[in-house]
Amino acid sequence: MAFAPVSSLVVDDLPKFFSMMYHQLINQAIYTFAELGIADRLINVPLDRGFTVEEIIGDNKLQWNRDLLYRILRACIYSGIIETINDGKHFILTTSGIMMMSDHPSHVRDFIRFSFGPLCTRASLHLPNMVRREGTGTGIARVSDGKDFYTLMSQPDQEEFLKIFSGSMTIFSMQNGSQLITTIDFGRFKTIVDIGGNRGTFLAQLLERYPSSKHGIIFDLSHIVNKF
């Protein structure tokens, strides 16, 4: 049986799809890095020596898979959050990697855990069914016993998820807030209400920029306002 030749267009496009797959694998490696708090374990490492996988794990009570962690760290190199030095088995944080510390003001770790975490990942897998109108509810509702997103966050057993989501929203405020503040003249308003303002990151930026605005009010759900 003779096979038709593959056109150059198809061949040229194949790397695009391989790239999509590789990026997905790297995303999951970054999520694992964030979820395990690896940046916190590397922050005080001497930059001229680095830590091996064994040193990163540290406590012998942690029965982590050393070989798998090593491969995950190697994948994280491609994202620019860590580097290897010496023999290629000692790891150090990059400037971007430092931002993934659990107490970094950028809340990058929260953003990664939310965006690539199990809830959003599982919810996105329902998109084909939602397009076909099979079943009811949003993607989140389909993986959380019918609860909508904000009802889910209000549950007593979801405090960690609420913290992660709140930190993620802080990133958006920091990233987009400066553009809004410089584009719109908020100084003409004496009182500004930020609806859905979360921790107040954007409102704080705004009031600092426009001291003529004397009052700022955060309006959000009670379990968010009372928590943060």
From TrEMBL:
The keyword Phosphoprotein does not apply. It comes from Rotaria sordida. GO terms for molecular function: acetylserotonin O-methyltransferase activity. It holds the Pfam family Methyltransf_2. Catalyzes the transfer of a methyl group onto N-acetylserotonin, producing melatonin (N-acetyl-5-methoxytryptamine). Its EC number is 2.1.1.4. GO terms for biological process: methylation. This is Acetylserotonin O-methyltransferase. It comes from the Eukaryota. Residues 156-227 form the O-methyltransferase C-terminal domain. It is an enzyme of class 2 (transferase).
